[in-house]
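Inverse folding, one chain.
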């Protein structure tokens, strides 16, 4: 009873700390927490759906992701012009709802061929474009460098929790629909799509509870930037390189080496709760100077996981890889995003430009990395072998990621100096 009382008291203190933050930041966090229940379905089970209904053709999954990654920067570009006329909350909610439309489009296709998969991917890319373009701008404008560790720690905590709960539930639902004789697997995916629609509508309602401001300056397209931004783009390219694989690799490896969505959900859940708690504590108590250490640990875990997958290339290797990935992705994000936002803070003042300028340009750094990674995967598949691509492409990507550690150190050091200047002017 005493232990329960202490837990309750601590939980309430964390809740009151949450309430002590600005209202616009809290509304944005709640919106993203609700949408966090959608992202695992979009990230993992859409790829599993393609593999299941195309006889495990994982090259179609790669083409689907390539279409998504093409749609994202194009939508960022369109979003920049739409922000001149349309409220940012409307664009943000439209992006969330569009993810459900993309899934619905795919579920209604009679045959999953290359054209249909690419069209579905482009719609999903537009969804992500509207979501991330406006989400990043709102996150930048509702936070500052002192509370961003907390913001991204809490957000990543919920993303990690949902990446455990949702794959477990959805995997169980898909398999049970067949084994229990409820209905077919395709109908199960349709029910899941309906659930995604409901969640996107709820999150769209929440984001309109606050009046968010659009960018003040209208121009956002520039071609010349400070040297500091070139370093940030290098980090973005390496991050994109990993992203291109980490959305597709879990579904492909599990369906290829293990075999069903139930395993997909179970493996995603292992160790995830502990990870989520660690992330919350890191966000709550870490300071800006700790970001490089969190960043480095995440990347080293990624190398360990991909090495295990390459050496073992078995169900055990996949489990080790998934366990390290559950840690790597949130650790990387909780450090990376505040670093990115701090650079934008500094350069938008130094170069007197719209913050969306840097958010838009940053997306092209990610795009180049994503495309390079996926094209490399497809070339290894076609010109070497499927097995070689699945075994070694992830390891190559992980080793390349290590180059981002010294660059991130330089970026943090430079923005730290700029912060010192700001305080003394």
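Residues assigned per position:
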């Amino acid at each position: 009873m005493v232990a329960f009382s202490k837990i309750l008291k601590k939980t309430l203190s964390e809740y009151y700390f949450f309430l002590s933050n600005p209202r616009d930041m809290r509304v944005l966090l709640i919106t993203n927490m609700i949408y966090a229940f959608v992202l695992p379905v979009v990230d993992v089970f859409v790829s599993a759906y393609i593999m299941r209904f195309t006889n495990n053709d994982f090259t179609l999954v790669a083409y689907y992701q390539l279409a998504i990654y093409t749609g994202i920067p194009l939508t960022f570009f369109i979003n920049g012009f739409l922000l001149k006329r349309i409220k940012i909350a409307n664009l943000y909610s439209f992006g969330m709802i569009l993810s459900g439309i993309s899934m619905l489009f795919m579920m209604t296709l009679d045959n999953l061929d290359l054209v249909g998969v690419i069209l579905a991917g482009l719609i999903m890319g537009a969804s992500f474009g509207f979501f991330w373009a406006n989400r990043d701008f709102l996150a930048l404008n509702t936070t500052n460098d002192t509370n961003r560790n907390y913001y991204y720690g809490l957000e990543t905590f919920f993303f990690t929790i949902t990446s455990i709960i949702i794959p477990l539930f959805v995997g169980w639902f898909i398999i049970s629909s067949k084994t229990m004789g409820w209905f077919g697997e395709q109908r199960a995916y349709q029910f899941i799509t309906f659930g995604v629609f409901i969640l996107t509508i709820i999150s769209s309602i929440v984001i309109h509870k606050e009046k968010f401001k659009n960018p003040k300056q209208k121009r956002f397209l520039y071609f010349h930037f400070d040297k500091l931004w070139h370093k940030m783009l290098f980090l973005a390219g390496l991050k994109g390189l990993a992203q291109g694989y980490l959305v597709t690799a879990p579904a492909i490896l599990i369906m290829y080496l293990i075999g069903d969505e139930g395993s997909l959900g179970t493996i995603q859940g292992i160790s995830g709760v502990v990870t989520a708690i660690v992330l919350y504590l890191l966000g709550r108590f870490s300071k800006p100077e700790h970001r490089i250490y969190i960043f480095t640990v995440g990347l080293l875990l990624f190398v360990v996981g991909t090495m295990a997958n390459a050496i073992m290339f078995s169900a055990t290797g996949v489990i080790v890889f998934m366990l390290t990935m559950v840690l790597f992705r949130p650790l990387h994000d909780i450090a990376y995003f505040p670093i990115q936002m701090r650079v934008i803070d500094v350069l938008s003042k130094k170069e007197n430009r719209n913050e969306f300028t840097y958010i838009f340009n940053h997306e092209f750094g990610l795009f180049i990395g994503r495309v390079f990674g996926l094209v490399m995967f497809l070339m290894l598949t076609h010109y070497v072998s499927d097995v070689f691509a699945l075994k070694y492409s992830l390891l190559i990507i992980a080793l390349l990621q290590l180059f981002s550690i010294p660059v991130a150190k330089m970026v943090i050091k430079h923005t730290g100096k700029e912060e010192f200047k700001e305080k003394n002017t």
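Residues 315-350 form the longest helix (36 residues). The CA atoms of residues 13 and 19 lie 10 Å apart.
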